[in-house]
Structures are given as C-alpha cells and as structure tokens.
C-alpha cells in the first residue's frame, strides 16, 4: 500500500462498485478502531488516517457523479436545485435582476414622458 491512491481510476468506475468498495473501507475502519481500543500494533494505527482519506475520496467521487447526473437531468428545464446553485452572498442572491431594475411604475413613465430633460442654449 505504499503506492499513492489515484482518484482518476475511481471516476471510471460505476456507482454500484464505488458503493461496494466504500462499504468495505468502512468495515476496515471499524476493525482498525477496534484494534486501537485493544492496544494493537502501531502499524495498523497509522493506517486509520489512510483509510479515512480513502473514504473521503470515494465519497467525493460519488457526490460528483450524483451532482453531474442531476445537472444533466435538469439542464432542459433551466432551473438547478438550490444546493447546486452558486452560493455567493445573501445580498447578491437577493439583489434585483437587470430586468427587474429596469422596470418603471406607471407614475415614473408619466413623469418621464411629460417632463423630459430640458435643453438649454448657452450664450457666449
């Protein structure tokens, strides 16, 4: 296990295979933790961190695949689910859109049409 773990290989796998491997890793983590409690050897204790990181990589790939599936499924409707939209800040999210900002009330239209900007001729 001295080889570095490649996430690239995970992305090529099917979701079912990923979930099976994830369950195996979780089982291994449970075994390592029981060895830790029963004062096992140090080699196995060092492996806990590696297994946890590997689990995190599996979960990341699974979540990426799910997000991509949802994106392709909702592409035609044009509306993304809330958790897939850009986070930004609350103020930016609640800001008016360009078209909403450009809209004017009846009263504003009357004022613009009836009282246009005056043009002054300056003497020199």
TrEMBL record:
Keywords attached to this entry: Ribonucleoprotein, Ribosomal protein
Coiled coil: none
GO BP term (any one): maturation of LSU-rRNA from tricistronic rRNA transcript (SSU-rRNA, 5.8S rRNA, LSU-rRNA)
Gene Ontology CC entries for this record: cytosolic large ribosomal subunit
Keyword Lipid metabolism included in the entry's annotation: no
Keyword Transport tagged: no
InterPro entries assigned: Ribosomal_uL29, Ribosomal_uL29_euk
Gene Ontology MF annotations: mRNA binding; structural constituent of ribosome
Family: Belongs to the universal ribosomal protein uL29 family.
Protein's UniProt name: 60S ribosomal protein L35
Organism listed in the record: Paramecium octaurelia
Lineage: Eukaryota, Sar, Alveolata, Ciliophora, Intramacronucleata
């Amino acid at each position: 296990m001295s080889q570095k773990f490649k996430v690239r290989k995970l992305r090529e796998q099917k979701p079912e295979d990923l979930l099976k491997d994830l369950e195996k890793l979780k089982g291994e983590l449970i075994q390592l933790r029981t060895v830790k409690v029963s004062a096992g050897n140090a080699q196995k204790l060092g492996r806990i961190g590696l297994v946890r990181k590997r689990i995190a990589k599996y979960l990341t790939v699974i979540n990426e695949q799910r997000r991509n599936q949802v994106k392709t499924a909702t592409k035609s409707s044009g509306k993304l689910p809330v958790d897939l939209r850009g986070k930004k800040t609350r103020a930016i999210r609640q800001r008016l859109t360009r078209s909403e900002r450009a809209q004017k009330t009846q009263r504003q239209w009357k004022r613009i049409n009836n009282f246009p900007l005056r043009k002054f001729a300056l003497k020199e």
